[in-house]
User: Fold this.
Amino acid sequence: MTVVGPFGLSVRDQALEADVQTGLAAVEAGLLDATKSDVPFITEAAQHLVLAGGKRFRPLLVMLAAQFGDPHAPGVVPSAVVVELTHLATLYHDDVMDEADVRRGVDSANTRWGNSIAVLTGDFLFARASHTLADLGPDAVRIQSEAFERLVTGQILETAGPTDGRDPVDHYLDVLGGKTGSLVAVSCRFGAMMSGADESVVDILTQYGERLGVAFQLADDVLDIASDSHESGKTPGTDLREGIPTLPVLHLRAAAAAHGRPEDVELVALVDGDLTDDARHAEVLRRLRTHPALEQARRDTVRYAEEARAMLAPLPDCYAKAALAEMCDAVVHRAG
Assistant:
């Protein structure tokens, strides 16, 4: 048994291990190549987050999904490079919008070079992803463009907030389906599609990825509150401090509105206050960590992960299917 990829995923077959490790190494080389420019400063900025590491969650899913066809097909690695470049580009933009200071344990690009350079570097990565994508054919271009539209739509909906009368939790889950689920779904879809897997398999893995992506983000929401370490690659409580709505906070608000318990109303007021004050921020984190809203968010994470696992049922039993099921366990484990 060898551990690869994010969260210590265990691979129990030597052939699968070799394919996954070889594929991920090729993706890493492809990312470095795609982020090179004739302008040294652009190379430095574009490779800033590549060199910082990361889980490579999406490329790993491409490699595992490709096991249902020919994992060595020529489009598999480039499609993994495309989804990771797209993901990296969104991180540059997200950090500007969130005014984040740290990403993957290093200074965020906006902290190091300013917002304008960070935004333009994200655009550069999108351009490089498109260049690679063009070689994968019109179907791949269409699939990626639809996913990117969903991703941006999710970001816009998050920024705009729910419309009057819309349940904020339902709105938020829709946002996550666009912002995170769409690109994770495409990772699984590209891996299966580029490997030549049957269309039914491609569809199953796409639906699996959509649900796994939402579960993955919900686990991050829980970690932002519950973790004392930097497991999420960001300082704990970052989303809370920046006023970004996450599922535990939305559940807290719903509980306060529904039942009006004084302690819930008081905690909502603290959340809505100035969390740049370290003492206040620490107090809110402490109280949220013992609030039922956090456990409710954990249950939601488990629900999406189990829905993802259930999608795998029609697939033939194999080591790749077992690894994809273990991804569901790993996501739930992250959420405690």
